[in-house]
Amino acid sequence: MFDGLGLDEKKKISEKTSTAPDLWDNPKKAEVILKELKYWTDLGDKWKDIKQKAEDIEALSGMIDQDNGEEYSEFEKDYKKLEKIFQKAHVELVLNGPYDKNDAIMVISSGTGGVDAQDWAAILLRMYLRYFEKKGWKANVTDKNVSEEAGIKSATIEIKGMMAYGFLKAEHGTHRLVRLSPFNAKNLRQTSFALVEVLPIIPESEAVDIEEKDLRIDTYRASGAGGQHVNTTDSAVRITHIPTGLVVTCQSERSQIQNRAQAMNVLRGRLTQKMMEEKKEQISELKGGYKEAAWGNQIRSYVFQPYTMVKDHRTNAETSQVQDVMDGDLDMFVEAYLLKGK
Questions:
Q1: d(CA 33, CA 57)
Q2: pLDDT averaged per 10 residues, the chain (length 342)
């Protein structure tokens, strides 16, 4: 069972790497390797537990009297419970893309829809922060451009956690909201859009080569609420990659040096994604590139009124429990996407 899934092989590779004599020459890399070994070890234990429980249920199935409603109901509950555990373990196992184990950067940008779209971007930011918390990941909002009227124009979040990029790549795309607008005097139905970009954090040693001469770096005063230096020193950073025209900004309460480092993380991720897209006939794991956050490009729709529904257009996964989704219950959509075609 395990060899066919490749789990034993992945664990053996991690074990071999973790015993290399020069492991601690690079402490940061060593930490990642040990986390990866723990991940595959824990997943192996989980699969063994699933296999044992499946064998137990199979043995019990021949002893269950289906005419005994109570007994059969308990058996059915155990089966469904195991089925859910199996699906989650399966999702973890299929995360074998080149950057799936990496930390991630998420960029949320308001799209078509005016003030409603900016409010929608802020709602998505809250939803994802709740999701990260449920996953046990560390999240840090490194850049937030607050709108004067309501919501946000954009936000950048750095997420640290095992397989963070592998899971979050399912969220890359345009998200559509339908609701009765609280910003419209007549409370009319409004459709709004926001773009969610998900990028892997690429270590400098593995990143595409970025030459200093290809960068234009501008500094300016950070805007919005923050530490006492905000609006008084040129701590914010804007980096333009001249050959591709990609522009990345970062402003926070930290120093210009830290903002530059964060901006370079985003730039490396975007350049890596761009490179992978150019080879998409061979590699389909990384999708993206710029798509206008507008009608026809959405990957998922969220309907608040006149009825409640969240539907993913790529997998047809849907639920009427909108509030649960907005509180960070995204597993059903992430899992359906990752298991699609597996």
A1: 36
A2: 56 82 81 79 82 79 64 73 78 80 92 92 98 95 88 93 92 95 84 93 72 88 52 75 88 76 85 71 43 68 94 96 97 92 58
